[in-house]
Amino acid sequence: MTTKGRFAEPEAPARTVIPTSPYFRLDGGEFLAAGLQRVGLEQLDHAINALETMRVDIGIHEARKALRRVRAVLRLVRDPLGDRVYRAENVALRDAGRLIGNSRDATVMVETVVGLSFLYRDVLQPGAFDILRSHLLERDKLLRRRVSRSRLDDVMATLGAVRNRFAAWPAQTLGEGYGEVGGGLLRVYRRGRNRMGDAYRQGTAAAFHVWRKRVRYLRFQMTLLESMWPELQREIINDLAYLADALGAEHDLSELERLLEEEPEMLPDENARNLLQGLLVRNRVRLQEAARPVGARLYAEEPAHFVQRLGVYWEAWRPEPS
C-alpha cells in the first residue's frame, strides 16, 4: 500500500508487491527436505546480508521479514521436526527479531503520522501534528543509535548459527508425503480462524495483532506452496496479503494511540491530541471492517476440510512414487 492508501479504506483485495528477496517457493521437482532447506538458507542469507549492507532501518525491515518466512517454514513441518527442534529454532529466530525490532517500530510511528497528515490534509490545519512528528523523529534517531553495531553483530551471529544447523539438516528428516506438511497447515489455518473470532469478539488491539501474526504465517506458507496450483494459490495469497496489510495498518494506528495515552506530552496541544486520537479510532474501525469480509472468505472452511482440499492439490502436484 502507498503512504496515502495505507490508512484509506481498502476497496478490494489487491496484489502487494514484496521487495526483492530470494525466491520463496517450493519447486515440484525438488525433494521436500532439500527444498525447505534451500528456502530457509536463502532467507537466512538475505537477512544477514541486509543487516550487513543496507541502511539500518531498511536492513532491519528486510531481515525481520526474512526471519518470519523462516519461522513459517518451521511451522509448516513442526510435526516431523519434533517440538524440541521446532521450539529451539523458533525461539532463536524470535529473539533475534526482537533485539532489532524497536528501531523499526519507531520508524513506523513516524510514517503513520505522515500518512494521516496526508490523508486528512484538506481538513487539518497546516502543521497540526508537526510537534508530534518532531518528537517521533527524535525518538526514531535515538532508538536507531541504540541499535549498535555490536547488537547487529550479535543478531548476525545468532542467524549464522541457525544457518549452520539448517545447512546440516539431513535429507532423511522429512519424507515426501503430504502428511509432512498437513499438520502444520492445519495448525496455522485453525489458529488464524480462531484468532479472527477472538479479534471481532474482543475488539482489542492485542487480539487483532495476534490474528495479524497468524495471517502472516498462512500467507508465507501459501506462497511457499504456490506452485501447487498457481492460479488458485495466487488468489489466496492476494487475499492474505491484503488482509496482512490492513491488519498491519490497524496495528500501527493502535500503537500510536497507545503512545499518546502513555505519553501525552508528545503532542501537548490537547485539542490536537483529541483530534488525532479520534482519527486513529475512526481509521482503526474502518480497517477492521474492511478486513472482516476478506477474513470471512479466507477462513470460511472448516480447518480439516481446508487441509484435505489442499491435500488433493498436493497429490496432483507431487504424486508419491508407486
Shape: globular
Number of domains: 2
| Poorly predicted parts | 1-5, 9-19
Mean pLDDT: 88
Helix and strand element order: HHHHHHHHHHHH
Number of strand segments: 0
In percent, how helical is the residue content? Answer: over 70%
Instruction: Measure the end-to-end span.
Output: 47 Å
Any idea what the radius of gyration is?
21 Å
**Tally of separate helices:** 12
Tell me the structural class: mainly alpha
Main sheet: strands, sense, barrel: none
The portion of residues forming beta strands comes to: under 5%
How would you characterize this protein structure?
This protein has about 325 residues and is mostly helical. The chain has two domains: about 30-100 and about 145-175, Four Helix Bundle (Hemerythrin (Met), subunit A), CATH 1.20.120; about 175-320. About 75% of the residues lie in helices and about 0% in strands. It has twelve helices and no strands. The longest helix is centred in the C-terminal third of the chain and has 33 residues, at about 230-260. The protein is globular and about 70 Å long. The termini are far apart. The relative contact order is 0.13.
